Amino acid sequence: MLIRNQHPDYGTPLEPTDAETLGIEAAEAVERFLSHRPNHKPTPLRSLPALADQLGLGAIHLKDEGYRLGLGSFKALGGAYAVIRLVLEEAQRQLGRTVGMDDLHNPEVAKISASMTFGCATDGNHGRSVAQGAQLVGARSVIFVHGGVSDARVAAITRYGAEMVRVAGTYDDSVAEAARVCAERGWTVVSDTSWPGYEHIPGLVMQGYTAIMREALEKLPQPPTHVFVQSGVGGIAAAAAAYLSIRFGEKRPTFVVVDPARAACIFETARTGRPVKLAHGEPTVMAMLECYEPSPLAWRILSRVADAFMTVEDETAVEVMNRLARPLGHDPVVVAGESGGAGLAGLFTAARDPEMRAMICLDATSRVLLVVTEGATDPDRYRELVGLPPADLASVAIEGK
Prior knowledge:
globular, Rossmann fold, TrpB-like_PALP, seven-stranded mixed beta sheet, 17 helices
């Protein structure tokens, strides 16, 4: 399903705080932060001309976040960035002076960070990022996961020294439990979703994601005409849409938000015009996107700058994984996890449907930008769905193409 944005706020300016958090200067601040990370380099931008030709489009480019900071996911940009920013803010408050990245290992700052505990709920990738950020600054991390998070993803988080807490129920239940326990014990909760009175930290998480669009636009031969980005609670979609809106103004590309059909909280919110909490139903294969309640902060942004909202079926997401692993013509191999290719699943769905194509003006001149938000973060699941070991495919993929 695909619908155009009919919200009364559609086309109105972003709120000043959101524009400041996700604008050009904010993205430049993230880039300066990343320059201090020893394993940072821009992730690859892949061109898929054979696939574009098959779908009747002018160009398709994929920003491959499977190579991001050793975590294999775009989430590496959000949680770790927020943790380090929060340590610097607390050090500045306690020391009464300006504190920057170069001061992180100063004994005074290190003592402050060692006294801090960061908690969060996760489906896997966000928790890894928060845990990595805490480890980088010598802080403690406690990560809350629901029953649907695989043992492989839990193990990937514990490698960064995190304490793990299992929570009965869904992702949204783990969010509530993380918030409750952190408040009770005086820990700092680093959530990628917001709630009333809690927007600064989710804003920092989203600010980290602006690096994706900034890097992509530096490498694209021409600006995109269309951008498809998948959504869980809405954070990455809102960050990307806001940055593009500020960067291009009235000439911004058509922005399409893609939800799993089985966990379409942003789509249903757009359809009803207000935040909707969905009942927990049959799990989606796109486990990293299995969220049943949108972030109010993300929705506030998307209601203004997203042009359309759509859902995709699990079968199409798996088809995308297999197509990227076995590409057409001379297109590059791309390793995309179950959720990583959801934006491309949205493009597949729209490009094959004449009514959808017309609704968002997709044609042979369209230049489409997508984000592969994660690689094979659960290798066993990837092998099950694609029939190939991701490590073998990764050796074929040309990083940086």
